[in-house]
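Section 3.1: Structural characterization of target chains.
Under the original work plan, the team committed to producing a structural model for every single-chain target entering the pipeline before any wet-lab resources were allocated. The record below documents one such target. The sequence was received from the expression subgroup and is listed exactly as submitted; it comprises 60 residues.
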Amino acid sequence: MCLATVQKESDNTVILKMVSRIDVDGDKVILRDIMGETKTITGRILMVDLANSIVKLDCE
């Protein structure tokens, strides 16, 4: 299983850890972790590093 840490690009603030699913709906990025917690962020995906399990978002 590949789990990701999602970070804010501007300052590397961690938004959510152990993310198992990411959905995009227009300008919304919906993150879901392995425990079922869901966070919806307004922004866009800038980078996905699969080798290091990091996703960077451009968000407010």
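The CA atoms of residues 14 and 44 lie 15 Å apart.
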